[in-house]
Amino acid sequence: MQSTLVNLVIEWARAPAAFRMEFDHATVISGGINVGWGTHDAANHSFTFTSTGEICRVCFGLQAEGPEPTRLPGIIRAVDTAHPFEVKFADVLNDGRSELTLSGPAVKIYAEVDWFAML
What is the pTM of this model? Predict the structure, then answer.
């Protein structure tokens, strides 16, 4: 099966105390905390933050199943947290801005296809 490399950024207006990320139809190549004070357990993609009154940002490099970015079947899911959410890759990549804002938890999700890495 063909795959697409995707750079993914998830940004909370206020960092949750703890959460774990799950990805359907995608493999995590790399990831970690970009903004905020906390810890990242890379083995199970879980995070804890001590700076819960501040912005936090986590980033991932993913190998997503599927050759066409606007039709990727992958799903991003934040679990084990007070405010879980679930988003489809295609919902972030389809709007042309590569950004999706959620209001349930105040979260922004940015995604882009890593075209240069796929050359």
Answer: 0.88
Task: Count Cα atoms within 13 angstroms, Cβ side, for 108.
Answer: 10
Number of folded domains in the chain?
Answer: 1
Are 8 and 113 in contact, with CB atoms under 8 Å apart?
no
76 within some domain: yes
Query: pLDDT tens, 61-76?
Result: 999 998 776 678 889 9
**Residue 17 domain boundaries:** 3-113
How far are the Cα atoms of 13, 84, 114 from residue 118, in angstroms, in the given order? 32, 32, 7
Q: Specify the DSSP element, H or E, that contains 21.
A: strand 18-24
Within a domain: residue 119? Answer: no
d(CA 62, CA 97): 19
